[in-house]
Amino acid sequence: KAGVTQTPRYLIKTRGQQVTLSCSPISGHRSVSWYQQTPGQGLQFLFEYFSETQRNKGNFPGRFSGRQFSNSRSEMNVSTLELGDSALYLCASTQGGLAGELFFGEGSRLTVL
Amino acid sequence: GESVGLHLPTLSVQEGDNSIINCAYSNSASDYFIWYKQESGKGPQFIIDIRSNMDKRQGQRVTVLLNKTVKHLSLQIAATQPGDSAVYFCAEKNDGQNFVFGPGTRLSVLP
User: Fold this and answer.
1) Distance, CA of A25 to CA of A66 (rounded, Å)
2) pLDDT higher at A98 or B94
3) Which one of A33, A38, A107 has the shortest CB-CB distance to B43?
4) What pLDDT, on a 0 to 100 scale, did the predictor assign at position B5?
5) What residues in B contact A33, CB-CB < 8 Å?
6) Rounded to whole angstroms, how far apart are CA atoms A65 and A79?
7) Residue B1 has pLDDT above 60, yes or no
């Protein structure tokens, strides 16, 4: 069974640009969560999608958004990039119950110059 | 929260010794806990989980202990190996909420 796949793995952007990251969950998993990981703040929850609906949201500004498609694939978008958005963005999937482990992808490393 | 990465708490152990990594969780309503291992350049990997109706759970070479009275979780790794070197995170969750991760501990296994 293929794991969680995130693309791209690495990308470099400049301030003010926008970026879209993609996540394909494990087959059969309906819930996708996104986390931002930085040295200063650790793993911070961004949002969770289940059946194309945002079910939970963390404390991030509106520049961070996401969506989920009918095949459970998810994208997150960050607009008007800031230097502080440089981070590893991790996607995790789970079958969809409110308990159960998260299966993480390898992450997308974003560098903002 | 505490820093992760360069400023992580670090535990150094000799190869073959047992390791104990501790975690204080924040929410007394949390009822599900997971330990994750993250190696450099990779996403976190599941190690072991425990629900709040248990106080101990064992896996292969790993044991998780849960003390709800003091909101404390620990991960014990038996006969630590070089491949165990990584950052370890605890995560807590209560029904309907998202997982909240601890700051992480870097485990360094000395030859």
Assistant:
1) 14
2) B94
3) A107
4) 44
5) 98-99
6) 8
7) no
